[in-house]
Amino acid sequence: MGGQERKVEIVEKLTAFQGYFRIDRYQLRHTLFAGGMSGVMTRELFERGHAVGLLPYDPVKDAVVLIEQFRIGAFAAGWQPWLLEVVAGIIEEGESHAEVARRETKEEAGIEVRDLVPIHHYLVSPGGTTETCALYCGRVDSTHADGIHGLGAEHEDIRVVVMPADEALAKLDSGSVVNAAAIVALQWLALKRGEVRRRWLCGC
Hints:
The protein contains four helices and eleven strands; from the N terminus they run βββββαββαββββαα. It has helices at 72-76, 97-109, 165-174, 180-202; strands spanning 8-18, 22-30, 41-47, 51-58, 63-70, 82-85, 87-90, 115-123, 132-139, 148-149, 158-164. The longest helix has 23 residues, at 180-202. The model has no long low-confidence stretch (mean pLDDT 95).
């Protein structure tokens, strides 16, 4: 766009649907790379809030704690709908990222988080939603990580899966992990595993 100022003009914004989630409809135009402005376009935007994800990692056992649960999006897309994932939850008003990470790890995996290391903060699908995900790795003791968890009122049926880090990374390489947050977190672990393990085991 050269020296041209980039801008977006909102012609109209309205809420097209309000249920458990919200869909907003925008009419807008924006600056073009070639100069000038685009024509007015209509875009729908899915609003569901912002999320925190956490990969629980046990540096003593060199193991990760993943969760497995049913996902309607995978089912509707024709994929196997029980997905291996990291712990995750939507940020409630007034909550910090750390509070969400600790709350969700207790609710979904039944374990406590002892320390947090940031991985990345990213836009989940910017073509259709404002949702972001703040992703962390959390130090845990996986000794008693087991069982079925989740809130019955939210129809959660979450199975805890503990595995050696090498096995989790092999599942990543084989394409068995298809959830975006889990892919990002495990790729980070593949790069930072030695560093984060040293940090948590010897404080160096």
